[in-house]
Amino acid sequence: MKQLNIKINGKQFHLMVKEHEMLSTVIREKAGLTGTKIGCEQGSCGACTVLINNEAVLSCISPALRYENAEITTIEALAKDGVLHKLQKKFVEKGAIQCGFCTPGMVLTALSLTPSLNLEDGMEVLTRQVKEGLSGNLCRCTGYKKVIDAVVEYAIESSESIEEDVEPLSSSVAVGVSRPYIEAEKKVKGAAEYADDIVMKNTLHCKLLRSKYPHAKIVEIDTSEALKLDGVHYIATGKELPITFGVLPISQDETAMAVDKVRYVGEVVAAVAADSEGIAGEACKLIKITYKQLQPFLNIDESLNDVGENERIHDTGKFNNNIHKKAELRFGDQQKGLTEADVTTKMSFEFLGINHGFTEPHAATAFWDENGLTITTATQVPHYLHRALAKVMEVPLSRVRVIKPYLGGGFGGKSDPFPHEMIVSHLARKTGRPVRVRLSREEVFITNHGRHPSKMSVEMGVSLNGEFKALDADIAIDGGAYGSFGVVTSYYNGVLLQAPYKLDNFGFRAFRVNTNKPQCGAMRGHGAVNSRFAVESIIDDLAMKINIDPCKLRLQNFLTSNTQTVGQYRITSNGSREALLKVMEQSEWDKKIGTLESGHGLGVACGFFISGSALPIIWNELPQSVVHLKLDFDGRVLVTSGSSDIGQGSDTMLAIIVAEVLGISMDKIFVLAADTLLTPVDFGSYSSRVTFMAGNAAKDAAENLKKEIIEAIVKAKGVDAEELSFSDSRVFSFDKAVDLSWMETVDILTAKRGAVSVSGKYISPKLGGDFKGAGAGLSPSYTFGACIAEVKVDIETGQVKVMNVWGAHDCGKAINPMAVEGQLEGSWHMGVGQAISEQMKYYKGLLLNNNFLDYKIPTSLDTPDIHANIIETIDPEGPFGAKEAGEGAIHPVIPAIANAVFNAVGVRITKLPINAEDVLAQIRDHQISNNK
Amino acid sequence: MLTEQGYIKAKSVEEAFVNANNHLDGFRYVAGGTDVIVNKFQGNEDAQILIDISGIEELKHIKIKEDYIEIGALTKLDDLKKHNIISDRFPSLIEAAEAVASPVIRKTATIGGNILCENRCTFYNQSEWWRSAAGYCLKCNGDICIATGGKNNCLSKFVSDTAIVLISIDAKIEVSDHQQTSIIPIESIYSGDGVNSRNLSKTALLKSILISNTEEYQTIYKKLRQRETIDFGSLMTAVSLNNEKVKIVLGGVDPKPIVVEGNIEDDLNELILQATKKARTVDNDVYSRKYRKEMIAVFLKRSLQELKLM
Ligand SMILES: Cc1cc2nc3c(=O)[nH]c(=O)nc-3n(C[C@H](O)[C@H](O)[C@H](O)COP(=O)(O)OP(=O)(O)OC[C@H]3O[C@@H](n4cnc5c(N)ncnc54)[C@H](O)[C@@H]3O)c2cc1C
Ligand code: FES
Ligand code: FES
């Protein structure tokens, strides 16, 4: 240890630091300034950026002792006297903040960048410089677009020293007005606390010991040496927590730690609670485990086969193989449809696994007290975690409290109950102290639950006049070692293909296999991203064969509004047509298509997704969502909801809806969400259900509160209930005989009664058929969209560059248009990643690219210009007509890019990510065959 | 027993040497640290004593002399472009510097550190845990190369972006190891052995880089990688033309830079072939060996075309 004298944000610190300690831990842990985030610890994400003498520095790879007597500026120092820095204001106003985890680093990088920007040479040059300058700062949420806009505007305005006047948002209209998230300021100041930022006193630190073998029996675990280490308090192993869990009731196949065998490299085998992370880590190294290795199964084909003498991964299931689930549904007669078709195309596809890549690593702190267990953890589904913890800890549901703090992105990757959550809960109980854990980026990658690697063969037929006759899909997905959402994923791969096109003969068969790799689960666009890719690629091919423009072929086949699919999905609002027409117009499709030179191409694709799963994961009769409102003497409406804001803006959505119904301004609303003790159950942030379901529950609650208010005013003032309007924070009758301010209204309501609490709920209508499997993909509403992508392909290297994405998504009604755009831009950015660079690569079951340098999320320079269009169709059952916007948009972008590659160079992409090598090989084959 | 960890800030070249000599059994110089520290995080760098040389003022200069330009080893990559003479005369050096890592890293990373940054391999640049699970490779004291299955040779790839441009313009470096200071061509320090990829003595300090201020070079630099930023190169090429002389330098495809020299009169395709043949490329990268090998010719042809030689 050495003394370090350092000034952070103007304050002098004299700290004892370890010789090789990094500046990031000094700032976060010693100075307590947790606005500086840790996303990778390897210099590849930018979350930890701070300023040292006004220059941006990555604090995670900067030795602290280098900075003796230096002046450090962290995000916390940017706002002065409570007033945001102009750049921070821009970030807020422009909607550049979603989960907010990248924001502090992004803001500081941008700030150090602006003095060097050249403003003289026009917007294009300026934008390019900003993209370049921010290119080491990863953002997984925004697609960078709004971030770049914010920085560019700031640069221009600060050079011209314009005092910009932001128009105050009109107070009476809430729905449909773009606005920043309610917590945006907190995030931009670095004040929002994420799971790893929350520090409790007397906390122990947990480190996890992970298996080095993909498939092996645990013969013996010897913790004796590790226990001797000073500072070690407890070492837990699998046998102590034998109860299985899993997000789906049918796949309760995982334990907190491996009990008698390990099923993937990285599975937790033991866990240490110690005085520091360092000691816990040392102790892990001293634990001796004897394994007996078993034959591993590492890919789909191996796992589909009979295992012979070898041991299966799980000993459940009737057959001697590693098939976890078979899902099959058929409607109409596909064989007949294919025979009747004039032209058919059958293609095989292969997709590698994709990781969510959220910037905030998992972290959690658990403790026990007179109320039982409390855990604060980065989760998308407090409710399911609540249930899983009660089960595994063997305590009543009433003894578990799950709190979700601010969350640095999820995208499905924080929507399962996780082993580390069980483990810290257990360690906290055993030691009687709070226990915290945070995963390294490598651990996040091996925890995975990402998109399934898949193989599929899909066939479609069309008549010469362009009518789709049949679709048949044969799918196998690689689930990794455990179940997760996999059964649902298996169905979604198939069922979500029955729209947006009218198909009378449709069917699929999907196998999910277990392999000895980290498990796969739900990720943005759950289940249907890969199979959608297949279908949209085939449609492109069919269009070519029957010589119809691929846009027109799609337009011709869209389902209408208010109809039913062959599998009995009820389609209500449907903006497919508007979406596609919009992007055709914006991209000038008609003008350009067929006229571009070789190497330059346009491609189109469409999408379809659920807007919330109509059925709960665990069968019960609870409403899908309940929202409570409390209005007390102070005039503030407290909204409590179990829904999880993971950066998508759901807290703000709830506030807007309540404000709209009650005609009050947003500052009169306080949202308390995602605390299973304080807030009513909402099933969580998955299946794109929150706006539709929690939004509807909030609307219902607000209407109930309105009724209460009306009743009180009618009684007090003797007006007719129908006479009363709520607007501009006033309640008045048409003739203004009654004209009350909000506070007067509240006085009347609460007189002799006190605070008024009301409840609202959302229950999905009964939907769907009554055949087995009919429940899969049922949703009270569906979303639709289209993308056109423009690519340039280098015909000598095979490299593909996505130039533009024009996208349109039918979200019913944009409650907060800026937030919807953010979701769309983020979705398309993520899709571009899967299309061109992202993949999970394994070597003998070990994940090769387990960090942000090797797992290639597009940077600001790799992200094309994205043109987002919101299509509004006003869904009859959505709150104010709203449907989802968080997931569905990702579907069309990936095949649009691949189809553009075909248009550019005649190469049909059947594997993702698009590999320059394959493209090049095919270009050459092409040239050879053309020359013949 | 491991020695205790230490962090020593050297204020002069002399101080750096003294401390280095005091800790011969386990020290590492740290300039920007952007390479060392990440390797340390992954457990590939285990020096207990870090000698921070980033405060040595005498190595931060850029001197424009009549016959040569001297760039102090501690010059930050981001600062190079601020010197008009360098950006005017050697735009490809700036291009290469700007192709290193990310903008924020380049504000810390030095040119000296870039010239000396560690070779890389998919199977080596992994965490300690990962490597112990996969089995240690030759470069981390194991006895088999995972990339090739071979037992003798580590062919980790050379990755410095600036070095290949510097070699193409015949730059020299001033290296000092307390006893003596010598000025040598940059390429001479690379051993070609993937494990110990530099020929320098342990305590040697790279003091400065010397580029001719009289010769006229035209250089084309190119880098193959998946993303437009951050990523290390899977192949880097620098092709320079100086009077009649053509110099081709490759990075990312061999444990050391590949250098092929010729004359504009030569059969340039033959030079390309030579360079391609010389590269001992293995499957240790995101792109396959085959593809990287193929791209050598594509990149070189394009470069020669840009130089109007083809
Ligand atoms: C995310 C990320 C991406 C990266 N991408 C690239 C890339 O694309 N291309 C690339 O080339 N590099 C890349 N790097 C590596 C590194 O950032 C650069 O090579 C950088 O230039 C190294 O400079 P440094 O000053 O930080 O070196 P350091 O890390 O300080 O040192 C590197 C090595 O050189 C030695 N050394 C440094 N200076 C001297 C000296 N004067 N005398 C003697 N020995 C010395 C050190 O002991 C050490 O062995 C990347 C790093 C990260 C974290
Ligand atoms: S945490 Fe420092 S760059 Fe990612
Ligand atoms: S807002 Fe950038 S990572 Fe979430």
CATH topology descriptor of the largest domain in chain B: Uridine Diphospho-n-acetylenolpyruvylglucosamine Reductase, domain 3
Q: Write the CATH architecture name of the largest domain in chain A.
A: 2-Layer Sandwich
Instruction: Quickly give the CATH architecture of the largest domain in chain B.
Output: 2-Layer Sandwich
Q: CATH superfamily of the largest domain in chain A, please?
A: Aldehyde oxidase/xanthine dehydrogenase, molybdopterin binding domain
CATH class of the largest domain in chain A: Alpha Beta
Q: Which sequence of strands runs across the widest sheet of chain A? A: 8-10-6-17-14-15-16
Low-confidence stretches of chain B: none
Assembly state here?
heterodimer
Question: Please, how many domains of chain A?
Answer: 4
Main sheet specs of chain A: 7 strands, mixed
Q: What's the mean pLDDT score of chain B?
A: 96
The share of residues in helices of chain B is 25-40%
> How many alpha or pi helices of chain B?
11
CATH fold-type name of the largest domain in chain A: Aldehyde Oxidoreductase, domain 4
Q: What is the helical fraction of chain A, as a range of percent?
A: 25-40%
Shape, principal axes of CA atoms of chain B: globular
Walk me through this protein's architecture.
The complex is a heterodimer of chains A (932) and B (310). Chain A contains 24 helices and 36 strands. Chain A folds into 4 domains: 2-77, Roll (Ubiquitin-like (UB roll)), CATH 3.10.20; 198-294 and 360-408 and 414-447, Alpha-Beta Complex (Aldehyde Oxidoreductase, domain 3); 454-614 and 771-931, Aldehyde Oxidoreductase, domain 4 (2-Layer Sandwich); 625-762, 2-Layer Sandwich (Aldehyde Oxidoreductase, domain 4), CATH 3.30.365.10. Chain A is globular, with a radius of gyration of 28 Å. In chain A, a hairpin with a 6-residue loop joins strand 31 (782-793) and strand 32 (800-812). The relative contact order of chain A is 0.11. Chain B has 2 domains: 1-56, Uridine Diphospho-n-acetylenolpyruvylglucosamine Reductase, domain 2 (2-Layer Sandwich); 60-116 and 156-306, Uridine Diphospho-n-acetylenolpyruvylglucosamine Reductase, domain 3 (2-Layer Sandwich), CATH 3.30.465. Chain B is 28% helix and 21% strand. The structure holds flavin-adenine dinucleotide and FE2/S2 (inorganic) cluster (FES) (2 copies). Flavin-adenine dinucleotide (FAD) sits between chains B (28-36, 38, 53, 73, 77, 100-101, 105, 109-110, 112-114, 116-117, 159-161, 205-206, 230, 232) and A (43-44, 853).
